[in-house]
Amino acid sequence: NAISDVTLNLTGDRTDRIAMTSDGLYSFAVVPGSDLTLAPAKESETPANQGVTTLDIALIRRHVLGLAALDSPFRVLAADVNNSRSVTTLDVILIRRVVLGLTNAFPAPQWKFVRSDFTFPDPSMPWVFDGKRSYTEFANDAANQDFIGIKLGDANGSWTAPAAAQLSRESASTDANPTPAIPAQ
To answer: What is the pTM of this model?
Structure first.
């Protein structure tokens, strides 16, 4: 699903912040031969518990207890809401506080982004990952420069865009194929 309200921070020979379109696309013009780095960011989610449920708490508790490991590096990253590079009971407590509405944020930013073509060396220990795209002497158009967005706390991957954004995207879309979290143009 496309993720709304994502900005792309462009640094290097050119510095800029680019807002993605509601369908998750982005584009920017650069001088040929530029050295650039592109990093997505999403500051907040309203409501904060969008996609974060008691099912996520149950899955993470089973992971912490060693009963059933989270089965993808993206789920493990989503479960680590305090950015401690481990999934612990403290993460469960922090997620419970968000689900119950006692707080509206985690200690870490609510979203993480991973390059769509990144391969985790050890999927069970996904703490070091590439969340940026760097270009040296950028000269040509580049398509499919996608990122995968990870909503913290959403260990089962149930997050969907809020209703208004979802309706506008559905009316504009004629493609029935699944798309990456942040398609690039």
So the answer is: 0.81
